[in-house]
Amino acid sequence: MIELLAAKKAFKENLVFEDASVQLHRGTYYTLTGPNGSGKSTLMKCLLQQEELTEGQMLLNGAPVKSSSRPFRTQVFGINDAIGWLPGVTVGQHLEMMARAATEINEALGTDPENLYSPREALEELGVPQAYDRQPYTLSSGQEQRSRLASLLVRPARYYFLDEPEKRLDSAGVQWITEWVDWRVTDLGDMVCIATHDPLLNEIAGTVNLRFPLNQEESRA
Ligand SMILES: Nc1ncnc2c1ncn2[C@@H]1O[C@H](COP(=O)(O)OP(=O)(O)OP(=O)(O)O)[C@@H](O)[C@H]1O
Fold this sequence. Notes:
The protein is α/β, with parallel strands linked by helices and 221 residues long.
């Protein structure tokens, strides 16, 4: 379980959230929704340890989290705008780097290696096999996003945080995300948390919706 305890985040005088306490359980699908600027991406960055909380604590299975800690790096994975592409490196080379780490992570997680895709298989599954030999900037924006999503098949985790993964995708791409969520949460018992403006991603059976501003009552689809 991932917990935020009395979390506060402010950028100087701009208070984004405070006294936010959230529990995120495995085997559950969460959505973060709310108006533009309400703090979804900021919370995601805090959960991915890309931003520090101003106050409060994050716990992973009861232990305080540090970005450098092995349990955190093993169990938690996410995609957001803060994660970029390296210049001069193809999509395939990025995914091959992830695949090398994936074997060790998979052993640490004790998960079934059958569920891991090779980079080529993952890009094939996402409908962008040509991306393997291409640099990301030569792809369409939707193809680039599909290439990012391919990393979800290459790199195993127990807790996934995705910030607006539907951005730039066509309807088939969004549908793919719903099926991936169902696989990870229902079949494999992982936790997926998605910040989204897309109604379809909020209608997956069992969705627990956390609405911003935080600490309002959650609702379940
Ligand atoms: N690095 C930063 N420095 C200063 N202020 C920031 C920073 N990042 C975000 N903010 C501010 O924090 C607030 C929340 O922004 P955030 O991006 O988390 O909102 P959001 O709910 O994800 O919005 P959207 O739906 O538009 O993606 C905004 O007022 C924003 O200006």
